[in-house]
Specification:
The protein has ten helices and no strands. The chain is mainly α. Helix 2 (15-28) packs antiparallel against helix 3 (33-49), helix 3 (33-49) runs antiparallel to helix 4 and helix 3 packs parallel to helix 5 (85-98). The radius of gyration is 17 Å and the shape is globular.
């Protein structure tokens, strides 16, 4: 619960809440390394929101270490089964975007999406929209629209409001290219979603 609250605090840009709750989750979850790894990813997002690149990347490296150790000595995971290398790397990309390192974030999103299991449809849609934002912030509207179009298709299939929220932000990011036909078509299609 503490890790999830940390995630929600980060989503609301509550830096102190994201960090404090992640720290509490790490302390409470010491017997379950996977849960500690999850909490560390949300703490990394809090550090990124606070502009602390090194602390953010170290937390993500720690999450990788927890994941590696969990395979050896954790009881069978009932929670956080979804924590894997690609999940941690998606979180790294998100943190890099927050920190303004958009080209690196876009590249990591692309690699992590390739490794994401096919049945994680909603997550894929969210990550595609975030990859689109990283591409837009890198000055690559064509790649942003391509990722956004894929995310929009998933949003239509799943009815995910979370994907639509991410796409609305991408739409704003693309506004500076509103005269490009590709961007205009994407923005019109999104307005109908």
């Amino acid at each position: 619960m503490l890790a999830r609250k940390s995630q929600l605090a980060g989503d609301m840009h509550d830096v102190a809440g994201a960090l404090d709750l992640a720290d509490a989750a790490v302390a409470a979850g010491q017997a379950h390394r996977r849960l500690v790894g999850v909490a560390m990813t949300y703490g990394a997002h809090g550090h990124a929101l606070d502009g602390l690149h090194k602390a953010s990347m170290l937390a993500l490296d720690g999450a990788h270490a927890q994941l590696g150790r969990s395979a050896c000595d954790d009881p069978p995971a009932r929670m956080a089964r979804w924590l894997d290398e690609s999940y941690i790397e998606v979180q790294r990309a998100r943190c890099l975007s927050v920190l303004g390192r958009h080209p690196a974030a876009a590249a990591i999103f692309e690699r992590a999406l390739e490794a994401l299991p096919a049945d994680y449809r909603r997550d894929r849609g969210v990550y595609l929209a975030r990859a689109g934002r990283a591409h837009a912030s890198s000055g690559q509207p064509e790649l942003a629209v391509a990722a956004g179009t894929q995310a929009m298709a998933i949003a239509h299939q799943t009815g995910s409001g979370r994907i639509i929220t991410e796409l609305a932000t991408l739409n704003n990011d693309l506004a500076r290219w509103k005269t490009m036909s590709l961007v205009t078509e994407f923005r019109e299609a999104l307005s109908l979603a």
